[in-house]
């Protein structure tokens, strides 16, 4: 601690938010008194800040987040692959000229669609917006999508279909505290967003936390001791659990009939569709005893407002969404919530727990292959005209819809597919499914350009690497899991020559000879974003950096979209108050009713079979984030979880001859990996679990399937079939080189 | 497909489905979902006036476990499929390929599907006659929605009920009636109920469980006569292992659950091969006429039939695939390969591996079997009794009648005093059959292992118990907590870390939080941290007060390790 520093000289702390997940915990960054010390000390000190989502708490990732600012291998200069195949430092001019020149040449030869763009859910709203604008208006390519496709797309598709609007939590997260019951499906919040757990306290004390997870995860254990119920279905069958719950609600007349009549459409079809899922049948598919299903249905009903309860929530996470029937599963969860009359009522509801820091905002402002800013559809002529006007271009020049992430990655370097790819804020060779194929496709490109803060596994494959600023070094906004628009603030300067993507994209546009103006001032970019979003589903037009700052300084409750412009001055709080809770009056569908859609269970695309008789599920650990590009560079976190591992039940370990601590080999139809076995009874004996934060020999996404959901194009990360054997012999295929030296 | 040059020339392929029950309606639905291009012209004839409903749940209606309104099944609503409710098929002219309806209409077909189901089998005893639709008042076979409604109505006035037949349905109905407070006797000819699914020992456990639920179980007896006075049932006279000759059970309500007989009269009259059911091959086509198929209870497939709806739904799925393929074949080249099909994946629809077709009809996932592997009904033959808290499950190799098979291992856990019986039959490293009474958790695990063919543990005896220990409570008292136990998950702080912190002088939770960040995440561990700090500081004070005395072992370990 720096207690010796005289108070008068201490720089004021900067109020901002954690760089990691969508909970966006409030934190103060206190700039170090003397930053000249260079890399030896960190430029800021993190302290938790009281903010509704975290209540003053931080997990270990947040506490140690400043370490990433001075990662030993932080990118501080552009790198260009030299004649010898090495990445060598280059000047910005040289690197940008090279990129612009190659992009121009490729586009001239193959057409504008030969350039593809891959974005990320960690980018600020301003960056995400500018990236979409750069792709559509400067490059004029339809080929843009982002890693949020791997996170939010199923929930987004189901939410849009049911409610006409997709906001992860359509209510403030603090509302959860008052509920008697919370049904949490496929989310391990105790590890993925630990401070969130405090919002479950009310339901736990009422015995009403229901966790559905094939694993007895840290979150499932929160239901121990009478605080709730853990349902442990066979992987890939969460949908059946939900269909059976709805069946019981209908069979036992526990539904809110008045609500269904007044606020929904399609309930009769849905009711008929679940007549086939009586609990005993469901049990034979999902492995959850019929009476447990009944117990949970009754518990939820007792908590619901129509039956005098204090409220109930249904929440989904990636565990059920990252499935080839992810949209159907979320739809079934929504159907349960609607049948209980929860959605659009204060104190109850359905929500999806957004994963990435700006997973919400990132999906609203034009990184998605079929969307323009404001959550507008790119094939809607009115939306095209509006956005084109803001951008000062002819609507006819805007490309049409592109293809979603997996299809985009799969098409790279194929005949007719993109020949150049720009990657921003994503580490696709670790985080995309069927990762070996992704690596293969990247290698087939003529040009790969990666913008990142550290030499990620993807950056190491690039022809050009551009160093960017990160969280504490930039201004901007994020939209957290509640749809609350919050400010990210600069507390330190970037090291070396790292620059913001806003500057990089503007420079590229200039060098490409585009006359489309790309802003570099985040506040100004936000103002443009706000105008572009005006009238859209996700309307930010009543917001500005100045208003957000003023609102926060005044101790405001927070500003949630939609927040349309009013005639009042948006720099103060005379404007639209924002919408903490949507759907209270009506849904955003044409008739104002929530649409219930009948869905059915199809099962995993890659199911167990004699030569792959074990389910593989994947997930996260508390100490690491996504591909680990950041957290592997924090010694404190890396020390606790230094390497990948595979959790397996002792009965499975005994059967296949893999002891606790031994090296296990996992083989799927797509790849072979090895990892240290950890015996635990927290997994079913028919299932193994692996965290997905690593590249190389233990990179689980080399096994996962890239089969996708037919509606959302979400890949089926969360379940596939593997064989488990001891790693007796050397691995058959050596891991690709991971240890390339990077010049500092 | 509007650009299809053959569009105008196309003649839809006519499919007539006779029967609008659980399987016929499901087939129509499956056809409708697959036939996005309108290549089929589907007509469904249903004798019952109702929309299709879930017949399996009729026993739940009797038990009061489900709202009658909640058992309606999906109806096809694609604007193309014709569903003629209240219309029975009276004849089939296979030469002309026409079905004649009882309304006089003629329905020409290219392919005919019989899904006529089954009727209740009546015991051949005086008092009942032979027509299931003309039973005396107070006597019901639980086959239709009307039956269920009448049984429920009868429970109000009848002083006692007798359920004849102790199979799955009989057990469910007896439990349901007893649950409504009606004195109920279950009469079953074999030595124990559900003898088809349960071996003797399991059956005895079930029998005891039924008795505990208030059902009087009489085994080894059969009805000799249903006593009818003034057209109304008043009791059942028993034969067999009776207490006295001509023993009679008084009952105002008699429910017959003696099994079913495939409804094959239409097929028989049409000259199709009929044994127990309509004889069909692996492709579900009649062995007599390849244009005619049979599915569900009326069919007699080569692999046999257990009368479970899962089998019928699986057949509906397979037949829908086949019929769509037949209709599409001439125009296969015009199919759009990239057409998105929501919640429906068909072989060859995408590039993904192993796109097994499972449209929710299957009771389970299963290994993808090519045509060469033949029909595999495994996974559809799980019998799970709908009996509320009483768990009774049997699957595959089970029941008292089965002959021993070389190479099979049978493992049993008999715990009759606790109402539990578990049996697992293992061959070639997988579960090929199981019986489980009185343990819902084990039953669910056995079912998952059976339907998915997941390999059994090295010692299959582990199948007999739930392999997951109940959640181990964390050591409640600080002294019993292991040194490396994680106390604060959010910040990865162990008991050891906190002890070290206290040894360095920390005496409050805030001190510990500052030094270790424990409690600064979700806050769930606050109580545990406070408890530890109190205990550790007390131990330290104790040590300080009596320097000569031995420190607590834990505290000593802390000091030595800091």
Description:
The complex is a heterodimer of chains A (744) and B (562). In chain A, a hairpin with an 8-residue loop joins strand 1 (14-17) and strand 2 (26-31). Chain A has a seven-stranded mixed beta sheet with strand order 5-4-18-17-16-6-7, covered by helices on one side. A six-stranded mixed beta barrel of chain A has the order 23-27-24-26-25-28. By secondary structure, chain A is of the alpha/beta class. Chain A folds into four domains: 7-70, ADC-like domains (N-terminal domain of TfIIb, Single Sheet); 79-151 and 383-520, Rossmann fold; 159-353, Dimethylsulfoxide Reductase, domain 2 (3-Layer(aba) Sandwich), CATH 3.40.228.10; 614-726, Beta Barrel (Barwin-like endoglucanases), CATH 2.40.40. The two termini of chain A are 29 Å apart. Mean pLDDT of chain A is 93; it is low at 1-7 and 734-744. In chain A, helix 3 runs parallel beside helix 18. In chain A, 27% of the residues lie in helices and 16% in strands. Chain A contains 22 helices and 28 strands. With 562 residues, chain B is α/β, with parallel strands linked by helices. Chain B folds into four domains: 7-118 and 262-370, FAD/NAD(P)-binding domain; 122-258, FAD/NAD(P)-binding domain, CATH 3.50.50; 391-464, Enolase-like, domain 1; 478-561, BFD-like [2Fe-2S]-binding domain (Arc Repressor Mutant, subunit A, Orthogonal Bundle), CATH 1.10.10.1100. Chain B is built from twelve helices and 27 strands. Chains A and B meet through helix 7, helix 9, helix 10, helix 11 and helix 22 of A and helix 8 of B.
